[in-house]
Here is the input.
Amino acid sequence: MFDDRHVLLLNQNYTPLNVLKLKRAVLLILAGKAELMENGRGEVRSVSFSLPLPSVIRMHYFIKRPYFPPKLTKVEVFNRDGYICQYCGRENQKLTLDHVIPRYRKGEHAWDNVVSACDACNRHKAGRTPAEAGMKLIHEPRAPQGNHFVVPYRVLRQHAEWDKYLGNGDRP
Ligand SMILES: [Zn+2]
Here is the structure.
């Protein structure tokens, strides 16, 4: 009954906390510690219970966690950008890291100067700034805020219903 499905766990205040295996999510619900927010369309059944299949669950109480800013790596940047090229807005599994202000022009390797870019956009931009290349960023890049974890591309794409909780695609 428990396959390798993943469930998004939200804190009591609806901020994403973590990605869990289905089994742990079901145990949290059965223990009365979390409630179902989104049904993954289906049911979890055993001899003793049957539950709507969870896709997003929310803790009944607030979990405090120390905040550590994530390390600046490619996968963290792609994850922050929801695997979407920040120039053409297309989702892409094969992204590259673009320095908005090119490094040789003293652009920093920092959260607010790196974005995900597809191959075509990266080649078109080349060593220019977005303004010089006539390109526009979808979102101003910045360091991820709040609790942070990486959702693997494969898992994210199986769960469109997570987007509204993760804020992908509509970040201000
Ligand atoms: Zn692109």
